Amino acid sequence: MPRYDYHIFICENSRDKADPRGCCADKGSRNIRAVLKQRLKELGCHRRVRANAAGCLDACAHGPSIVIYPQGVWYGGVCEEDVEEIVQRHILRGEIVERLLMPGQEFFTENKEE
Ligand code: FES
């Protein structure tokens, strides 16, 4: 039996300001994880849903980057305001938040029944 229903990895990688790749930390990912953890705790699901800080997820251009297992769903361009939708839809209802999917992740919704 899996230890967690969902395991969420949030990139908190930080780079020098001069690095042209940028980084998720400079785009607010640490606050995103803090808000997410707080919300999971408020909803009482923090023991079955884990939100971990991650190093670079190699999707810097699409950051802040988040990946949620077990499905391996990648969300990009996430901001604090998106946390509630991710929690309500993905974590509580098992839905994919289509508008936040990174490029190349469309297969999660392509064969969805109308
Ligand atoms: S710095 Fe976040 S994905 Fe690379």
Descriptive overview:
There is one protein chain. With 114 residues, the protein is an alpha+beta fold. It has a single domain (6-110), classed as 3-Layer(aba) Sandwich (Glutaredoxin). 25% of the residues lie in helices and 17% in strands. The chain is built from 3 helices and 4 strands, in the order E-H-E-E-E-H-H. It has helices spanning 29-42, 83-93, 107-110; strands spanning 6-11, 49-54, 66-69, 73-75. A 4-stranded mixed beta sheet has the order 2-1-3-4, with helices on one face. Strand 3 and strand 4 form a beta hairpin. The site of FE2/S2 (inorganic) cluster has 11 residues, from loops.
Strand content: 15-25%
CATH-defined topology: Glutaredoxin
CATH homologous superfamily annotation? Glutaredoxin
Give the N-to-C terminal Cα separation.
Answer: 32 Å
What string gives the helices and strands in order? EHEEEHH
Q: Taking Cα atoms only, what radius of gyration do you get, to the nearest Å?
A: 14 Å
Question: How would you characterize the largest beta sheet?
Answer: 4 strands, mixed
**Average residue-wise pLDDT:** 95
Blueprint of the fold:
Layout: E1 6-11, H1 29-42, E2 49-54, E3 66-69, E4 73-75, H2 83-93, H3 107-110
Parallel strand pairs: 1-2
Antiparallel strand pairs: 1-3, 3-4
This protein binds FE2/S2 (inorganic) cluster (FES).
